[in-house]
């Protein structure tokens, strides 16, 4: 079980479309029922003051006011650096829904998350009941264990700019095209594009996906140790 900090959209990283308070509460309730210690903090710079104490950061924030100029705010620059320190220490991050379109004043965020929403290119159809399926090449990934498909009332993000180093896990087919909706970036970052409203979390398959993501992320130390052990026992090709 882990200590989880949910950064919930407010102020600079809120918008008029998403009820971040409701979706963050839904996430908190689901994970608390699974035995995790969950703290929800609205997105102000001081919300990240004690990020070092958290085992996992969940980013559930948005793109702010599109009319706003992204002027430099020293307090937020320091807060972004705390997220970067968390990431560089190997500690995990889960980005939900509009996490692909948040922190627009922080150039490094898309490289941390593994992708981004591109204004004028990315989009989605109207919300509806939709089916999201495992990417065949990733069907054996632990995050997809017990998840044959996700059926949920939500949005289908399309044409996101995804880092080629990311591993897509879940996709939807819209307009006869396939679009990745969930991916893993490295050993400690997951992006999950579901979660427009609290209604998304009514779906049992969606809740299972969320819990699998959190479990996998919290096991990052074990994966890191296994990788290091494998590297130590691998023969040096120059001596074989």
UniProtKB/TrEMBL annotation:
Recorded superkingdom: Bacteria
InterPro entries: Class_I_gatase-like, ThuA-like
Gene3D superfamilies: 3.40.50.880
Segments forming domain ThuA-like: 5-216
Matching Pfam families: ThuA (PF06283)
Designated name of the protein: ThuA-like domain-containing protein
Higher taxonomy: Bacteria, Bacillati, Actinomycetota, Actinomycetes, Propionibacteriales
């Amino acid at each position: 079980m882990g200590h989880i900090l949910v950064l919930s959209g407010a102020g600079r990283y809120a918008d008029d479309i998403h009820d971040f308070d409701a979706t963050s509460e839904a996430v908190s309730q689901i994970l608390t029922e699974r035995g995790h210690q969950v703290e929800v903090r609205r997105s102000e710079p001081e919300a990240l003051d004690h990020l070092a104490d958290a085992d996992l950061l969940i980013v559930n924030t948005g793109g702010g006011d599109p009319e706003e100029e992204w002027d430099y705010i020293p307090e937020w620059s320091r807060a972004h650096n705390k997220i970067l320190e968390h990431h560089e220490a190997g500690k995990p991050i889960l980005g939900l829904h509009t996490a692909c379109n948040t922190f627009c004043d922080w150039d490094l965020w898309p490289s941390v998350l593994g992708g981004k929403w591109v204004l004028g290119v990315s989009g989605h159809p109207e919300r509806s009941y939709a089916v999201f399926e495992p990417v065949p090449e990733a069907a054996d990934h632990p995050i997809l264990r017990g998840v044959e498909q996700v059926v949920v009332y939500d949005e289908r993000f399309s044409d996101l700019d995804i880092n080629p180093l990311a591993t897509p896990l879940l996709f939807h087919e819209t307009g006869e095209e396939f679009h990745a909706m969930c991916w893993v970036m490295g050993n400690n970052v997951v992006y999950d594009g579901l979660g427009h409203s609290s209604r998304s979390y009514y779906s049992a398959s969606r809740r299972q996906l969320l819990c699998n993501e959190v479990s996998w992320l919290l096991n990052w130390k074990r994966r890191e140790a296994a990788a290091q052990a494998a590297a130590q026992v691998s023969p040096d090709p120059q001596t074989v």
